Amino acid sequence: MEQVDLFKALSNKTRLQILDWLKEPEANFPGQKEYGYEQGVCVGQLQAKANLTQSTISEYLSILQRAGFVQATRKGQWTYYKRDEAAFERLSTLIANTL
Questions:
Q1: Which residues of 46-77 are buried (b: 16+ CB within 10 A; e: fewer)?
Q2: Among 21, 70, 69, which Cα is nearest to 48's?
Q3: In what order do the strands lie in the sheet with 70-75?
Q4: Rounded Cα distance, 21 and 73, in Å
Q5: pTM value?
Q6: Which structural domains are found in the chain, ordered by start?
């Protein structure tokens, strides 16, 4: 993915908020505690917290996934998302080497 696309993925307030929430899923999504957080956070939890339509959340998550910022895991009919922390390390290195 090109550098411009990485920054475009981060150019939306809600997408940044999603990434921030996923940084500490236990604190931000207590309703999922009984299912655990190993696989990530269910799309429904993200949709409820963001108060957006399912299609909008899916689009945002797709953009973040294509940019490499989140990983998706499908479990039955549910899809779970979690941050890819290595992507943020690569981004930090990219920024440091560009400036």
A1: bbebbebeeeebeebbebbeebbbbbeeeeee
A2: 21
A3: 41-42, 78-83, 70-75
A4: 17
A5: 0.90
A6: 3-94 (1.10.10.10)
SS3 for the chain is CCHHHHHHHCCCHHHHHHHHHHHCHHHHCHHHHHHCCCCCEEHHHHHHHHCCCHHHHHHHHHHHHHCCCEEEEEECCEEEEEECHHHHHHHHHHHHHHC
Residues in the chain: 99
CB atoms within 10 A of CB 80: 23
Nearest Cα to Cα of residue 25 among 15, 38, 12: 38
pLDDT one-digit tens code per residue, 30-46:
988 888 899 999 999 99
Contacting residues for 62 by C-beta, under 8 A, at least 6 apart: none
% pLDDT > 90, the chain: 71
